[in-house]
Amino acid sequence: MRTGLAVVILLLSACVSQTTLDGQPVVRETDQPQRVAAERVALAMAYMERGQYSQAKANLERAEALDPDSESLLLAAALYFEQVGDVDGATQSYLTALKRAPDSADLRNNYGVFLCREKRYEAAQEQLLLAVNQPHYRQQGSTYENLARCALQAGQVNDAERYFGRALKYDPNRTSIWLELAELSLSQKRFDDAGEALAQFHAVSPATASSLWLGVEIAIAAERRQTARHFGARLLLDYPDSKQAKAYRAKNYQ
Question: Which stretches are transmembrane (predicted)?
Answer without folding.
Answer: none
